[in-house]
C-alpha cells in the first residue's frame, strides 16, 4: 500500500508555487505603484500670485504667526462682533428661532 503517491505531492507543490507567485506579483505591483499629483494651470497661477506679496504684508503675517505661537495674540472683539452680526441678523430674518 502506497501512502504518498508522487503525483499528489507534486500537485500540492505546484499549488504552493502558484500562491507564492501571486504573492510576488502583488508585491511587485505595490512597489511599482507611485503617487502622482497634477496641478491645474489655475492653481499654478494662484501659487505664483501668492508668492508676489508686498513686504509689509509678509511682515504683518510673520508678526501674527509669532503672536499666535507665543500665546500673546488677542482677538479684536469689536471686529469679531462686526463680522458675526450680519450672520446672526440673517439667521433671525430667515424665520428660524434662536
TrEMBL record:
Region (Disordered): 1-37
Domain of life: Bacteria
Domain Anti-sigma-28 factor FlgM C-terminal: 35-85
Keywords: Bacterial flagellum biogenesis, Cell projection, Cilium, Flagellum, Repressor, Transcription, Transcription regulation
Pfam families linked to this entry: FlgM
Gene Ontology process terms (BP): bacterial-type flagellum organization; negative regulation of DNA-templated transcription
InterPro entries per record: Anti-sigma-28_factor_FlgM_sf, FlgM, FlgM_C
Biased composition (Basic and acidic residues): 19-37
UniProt key word Repressor: yes
Family label: Belongs to the FlgM family.
Name the record gives this protein: Negative regulator of flagellin synthesis
Source organism per UniProt: Paenibacillus lautus (Bacillus lautus)
Amino acid at each position: 500500500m502506497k501512502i504518498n503517491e508522487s503525483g499528489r505531492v507534486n500537485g500540492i507543490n505546484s499549488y504552493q508555487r502558484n500562491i507564492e507567485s501571486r504573492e510576488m506579483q502583488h508585491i511587485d505591483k505595490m512597489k511599482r505603484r507611485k503617487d502622482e499629483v497634477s496641478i491645474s494651470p489655475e492653481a499654478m497661477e494662484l501659487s505664483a500670485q501668492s508668492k508676489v506679496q508686498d513686504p509689509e504684508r509678509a511682515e504683518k503675517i510673520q508678526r501674527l504667526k509669532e503672536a499666535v505661537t507665543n500665546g500673546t495674540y488677542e482677538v479684536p472683539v469689536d471686529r469679531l462682533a462686526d463680522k458675526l452680526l450680519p450672520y446672526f441678523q440673517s439667521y433671525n430674518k430667515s424665520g428660524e428661532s434662536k
